[in-house]
């Protein structure tokens, strides 16, 4: 499932969408574009990290926004558990398909004070979504990697969207000589990209290090999409797909990697053909068609017309040289051994 199908088509198979940002690049532009698509599905948006204005523009009939920025345990005046707020809003939701959007897992963990409590609550939400009419979805935004949420035990179907700064691909292309597909074979590229991208410190060093620009790109970014099909769907067999796309924050639209301005040098370098060694020399190294035909008709001195019988096995052919002394007599017959 590409970004196009994610933003413009309903995906009943994918009940769980995970958007993963990082300290160097934010996935909010894609999440905001997803929420901007109007549909018949009711949406409950719970803002715990970013203000609602960063995710939706203006009032929407199909999007019910819950501003939970002030729901901080020990500091808010009402001191209401955010779990109670979310469950109550779900119980009051209209009948039909429902999308639950939570921003973000990191804030939930901070409020609950435990990773186990957070995962337990998210499992409860996932079971609620599974019981609602299709195409209901649970959409979560996170900054810290959540390995448990990616496992099939949490949700058989999954769409995991992870964003990176473009400098990550330019670094792999220059330092590891591994540009993105199709410029490099996919097994080779993913074998280099995945281990490097999973080390967040390496990406942060490229952005915030001495040679970095000090922040993620404000114009475009790289999007890795991992799609796992499973669950109740019978239209597709269980499989996993992984691919890269680009996102232009200037035009707020998905683009091909080759269309990103930060990667044009990589694709332009690959399109440039190697220089012809037969050019700019004082003599001609090329053959005319007639010369090539005449050369093909020249018999080779080392080629034997008679071939060994494959039934009898291999054979050794030897052409004696003019200096060879071919004698059938035993050269050691005068020795008394």
TrEMBL record:
Principal cellular location given in the protein's record: cytoplasm
Stretch forming the signal peptide: none
Biological-process GO terms, alphabetical: tRNA wobble uridine modification
Keyword Glycoprotein: no
Stretches for region Disordered: 290-337
Protein name per UniProt: Elongator complex protein 5
Species: Pleurotus ostreatus (Oyster mushroom)
GO molecular function, one term: tRNA binding
InterPro entries: Elp5
Keywords of this entry: Cytoplasm, Nucleus, tRNA processing
Composition bias, Acidic residues: 321-337
Pfam families: Elong_Iki1
PANTHER family linked to this entry: ELONGATOR COMPLEX PROTEIN 5
Family membership: Belongs to the ELP5 family.
GO cellular component: cytosol; elongator holoenzyme complex; nucleus
Compartment(s): Cytoplasm; Nucleus
Pathway in which this enzyme or protein is active: tRNA modification; 5-methoxycarbonylmethyl-2-thiouridine-tRNA biosynthesis
